[in-house]
Amino acid sequence: MNTKTNTYHIEVQGLSVEVIRKDIKNFYIGVHPPNGRIRVSAPLRLDDDAIRMAIISRLGWIRRQQAAFEQQDRQSQREFVTGESHYFQGKRYRLDVIEQDCPPKVWLPNNTKIAISVRPGSDRDTRAAVLHRWYRQHLRAQLPPLLEKWEPKLGVSVNEVRIKKMKTLWGSCNIEAKRIWLNLELAKKSNSCLVYVLVHEMVHLLERNHNDHFHALMDKFLPQWRTYRDELNRAPLAHEDWQY
Questions:
Q1: Is pTM beyond 0.85 here?
Q2: What is the Cα–Cα distance from 136 to 67, expressed in whole angstroms?
Q3: CB count, 10 Å around CB of 2?
Q4: pLDDT class for 75, splitting at 50, 70, 90?
Q5: Who's near 2: CB < 8 A, 6+ residues apart?
Q6: Which three-class secondary structure state does DSSP give residue 17?
Q7: pLDDT for 243
Q8: What confidence category does residue 230 fall into, taking pLDDT thresholds of 50, 70 and 90?
Q9: Cα dihedral angle (173, 175, 176, 177), rounded to 10 degrees?
């Protein structure tokens, strides 16, 4: 198979479009959060004029998607102080910071509040680290039952799933090592968002590229994946910008 790819940018009616030319059958176009970045995947047989016409024919849809992202909730820089809104597993909570001279901990006293106990005088970074450690523990705990369910469904084996803060992606997959990385921010999203990203990365163990075969596999194993993807893209964005 010809695996040649070529990536470049073109301008179409004032819009900057990233074009990825590769050995695929169909033309795909995506508008990505947070700022409505436009990316198309085009078969090698299409020239730039054909690509421009395909984009122009979808301008209405593109602008509607961009408008939706403009209206999406954005969180300002978090200071980790009492009264701030923080998210956990798709729900919004009010943070309650308690200073006391004991080891730090985080818990949910009720359905509306995340309580965090820190030592007196703890600065923002210390409070952030305590909460992020709690997020990591909960995200880690969600993974074993998901892998137990999805590995036999897909017929793949994942050697390792690691969690880290990533500034550009919700997830990634090292195919050779069968290692998946998940963004720590997924701890703030609903279970369906986590399932979508995890299955997406697991499908890459069957198909490396985002081509027709990849989309067919996603349709087979997770028919509602587009709904889950849209939910992820609609979720409130952190101060940093992630995309998928």
A1: no
A2: 33
A3: 7
A4: low
A5: 23, 44
A6: strand
A7: 46
A8: confident
A9: 40
Q: What distance in Å separates the CA atoms of residue 159 and residue 178, rounded to the nearest whole number?
A: 5
Q: Is 111 exposed, middle or buried (0-12, 13-18, 19+ CB in 10 A)?
A: exposed
At 145-187, the pLDDT tens digits run 999 999 999 999 999 999 998 876 899 999 999 999 999 999 9
Q: Over the stretch 17-48, which tens digit does the pLDDT of each residue have? A: 999 998 888 898 988 866 788 999 999 999 99
Cα distances (angstroms) measured from residue 51 to each of 2, 9, 44, 45, 60: 20, 12, 11, 10, 16
Give the alpha-carbon dihedral of 196, 198, 204, 205, to 10 degrees. -140
DSSP string for 66-99: HHHHHTS-BPPPP---TT-EEEETTEEEEEEEEE
Angstrom distance (rounded) from CA 41 to CA 187 = 30
Pick the closest to residue 162 from 178, 144, 182, 177 (CA basis): 182
Rounded to whole angstroms, what are the CA distances from 166 to 118, 163, 171, 182, 188? 26, 9, 8, 8, 14
The sign of the dihedral angle between the CA atoms of 143, 147, 149, 150 is positive
Distances (CA, A) of 129 to 134, 190, 199: 9, 22, 28
pLDDT band (50, 70, 90) for residue 236: low
Query: What is the share, in percent, of the chain residues with pLDDT greater than 70?
Result: 91
Contacts of 18 (CB under 8 A, 6+ apart): 7, 8, 9, 37, 38, 39, 40
